[in-house]
């Protein structure tokens, strides 16, 4: 064990990061930047080829950083055999839901199918993918034990959840505290030592299950509170109260309140999915939670609420959704990023299309998307729009409040606006209707 600790301290331990996405790529680059030799393993050849050319496909990873380390300290590859030469393996593969909303851990299993071919003594494996409590022990530690290794003695296993917030200008991989929980105290110690080389603050817990639960608590907390505020927004709408003003004023309380904001639903790879991992696992213990299911229900009905609101608004102007020209502003799941995964805006698009609306999508962050619920065809997205073009729409719906939108120009030219994000907050106009 001391050998591995020493190697980590001297930044000589070889690291392999499996899965070079939103989580894995920043992590790999961060370790390479401080001098560790890092193999980045991804099964998508095109991603690996881009990285070898020094190109970044993740908005939070600076291309300059990739260029500086690639070929010197960072070696992207599709070849798992580099694990033979690796001391530390960090797994950051996707953990989606199946159609039945049960966890899909097949990506972790597939990564482990490869890793076990190259196991050796004094190796550390850390799982970073969000998952249900028990995954690290069941799918990684127990599997490795079958090869004769003693976890905590000649092999080390831990869970350390990724907390990256894509597009956040203040918090990045380096300054976001990292939680670590190993199978034994030694596994935690080694993992802590590794992350301390690149992350400012490490918080340790007593087991991988605790660390897995930390991540689920954080994201369930968000999903439930967003569900609550979405429900309050619907109530306020009926009562003629501006929810945004209410939240702003409530935020002046210096203790015991934290603002959450309503919107057209929740998206991304984390908030809509992670609570379902917890709810699924709890059922194995005969516990049927109510908060998670309720929040999921409220949040997933928000796109339909938007549809109904827009239909009401058009009705006032003696128009039907069928045949109306609608401009959707922002299609990504949150502002200032290019990620469309689980975006509620896509659901709004789909619902409007079903009703016969003639939709144009405007989003400077995206070129196109696949209409997965429709005919699976590529939908082109406008990256720019002029005032004259805006004038032609019967209704504009703001679904994602990118900072780069020219809100004044849109407000000046639009006939009517439904603002689901309070993006037009600086502009007072009767034609802007807020969620
Ligand atoms: N995106 C976020 O903001 C975020 C934040 C915190 C936690 N997480 C969690 O981190 C994990 C990864 O998420 P992500 O957003 O980075 O996903 P992603 O889809 O951006 O990246 C995953 C990468 O893994 C690769 N991959 C899949 N299977 C592989 C395999 N068997 N071998 C090698 N590569 C493989 C994919 O090609 C892809 O490049 C998930 O569990 C997610 O819930 C994500």
From TrEMBL:
Superkingdom of the organism of origin: Bacteria
Annotated GO molecular function terms are:
NAD binding; oxidoreductase activity, acting on the CH-CH group of donors, NAD or NADP as acceptor; oxidoreductase activity, acting on the CH-OH group of donors, NAD or NADP as acceptor
Key word Oxidoreductase present: yes
| SMART domains, per the entry | UDPG_MGDP_dh_C
State the signal peptide span: none
The UniProt entry's GO biological process terms, in alphabetical order, are: polysaccharide biosynthetic process
* UDP-glucose/GDP-mannose dehydrogenase C-terminal domain boundaries: 327-426
In terms of InterPro entries, this protein maps to:
6-PGluconate_DH-like_C_sf, NAD(P)-bd_dom_sf, UDP-Glc/GDP-Man, UDP-Glc/GDP-Man_DH_C, UDP-Glc/GDP-Man_DH_C_sf, UDP-Glc/GDP-Man_DH_dimer, UDP-Glc/GDP-Man_DH_N, UDP_ManNAc/GlcNAc_DH
Query: Can you say what this protein is called?
Result: Nucleotide sugar dehydrogenase
């Amino acid at each position: 064990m001391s050998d591995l600790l020493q190697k980590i301290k001297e930044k000589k331990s070889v690291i392999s990061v499996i899965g070079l996405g939103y989580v894995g790529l920043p992590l790999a680059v961060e370790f390479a930047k401080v001098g560790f030799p890092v193999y980045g393993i991804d099964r998508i050849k095109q991603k690996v080829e881009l990285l070898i050319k020094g190109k970044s496909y993740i908005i939070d990873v600076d291309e300059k950083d990739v260029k500086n380390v690639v070929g010197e300290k960072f070696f992207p590859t599709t070849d798992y055999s580099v694990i033979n030469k690796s001391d530390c393996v960090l797994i950051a593969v996707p953990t989606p839901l199946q159609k039945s909303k049960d966890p899909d851990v097949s990506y972790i299993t597939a990564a482990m199918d490869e890793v076990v071919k190259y196991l050796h003594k004094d190796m550390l494996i850390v799982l970073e993918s969000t998952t249900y409590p028990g995954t690290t022990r069941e799918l990684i530690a127990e599997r490795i034990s079958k090869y004769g290794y003693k976890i905590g003695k000649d092999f080390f296993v831990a869970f350390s959840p990724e907390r990256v917030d894509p597009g956040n200008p203040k918090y990045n991989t380096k300054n976001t505290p990292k939680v670590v929980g190993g199978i034994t105290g030694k596994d935690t110690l080694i993992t802590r030592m590794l992350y301390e080389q690149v992350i400012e603050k490490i918080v340790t817990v007593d087991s991988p299950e605790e660390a897995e639960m930390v991540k689920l608590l954080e994201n369930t907390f968000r999903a439930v509170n967003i569900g609550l505020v979405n429900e309050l927004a619907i109530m306020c709408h009926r009562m003629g109260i501006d929810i945004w003003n209410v939240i702003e004023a409530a935020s002046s309380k210096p203790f015991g309140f934290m603002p959450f904001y309503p919107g057209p639903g929740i998206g991304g790879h984390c908030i809509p999915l992670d609570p379902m991992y917890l709810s699924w696992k709890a059922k194995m213990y005969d516990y049927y939670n109510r908060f998670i299911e309720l929040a999921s229900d409220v949040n997933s009905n928000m796109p339909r609420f938007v549809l109904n609101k827009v239909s009401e608004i058009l009705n006032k102007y003696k128009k039907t959704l069928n045949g109306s020209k609608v401009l959707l502003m922002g299609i990504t799941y949150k502002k200032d990023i290019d990620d469309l995964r689980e975006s509620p805006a896509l659901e709004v698009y789909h619902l409007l299309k079903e009703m016969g609306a003639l939709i144009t999508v405007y989003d400077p962050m995206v070129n196109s998307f696949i209409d997965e619920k429709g005919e699976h065809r590529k939908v082109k997205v406008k990256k720019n729009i002029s005032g004259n073009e805006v004038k032609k729409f019967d209704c504009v719906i703001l679904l994602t409040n990118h900072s780069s939108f020219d809100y004044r120009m849109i407000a000046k030219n639009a006939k009517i606006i439904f603002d689901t994000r309070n993006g037009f907050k600086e502009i007072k106009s009767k034609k802007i209707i807020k969620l």
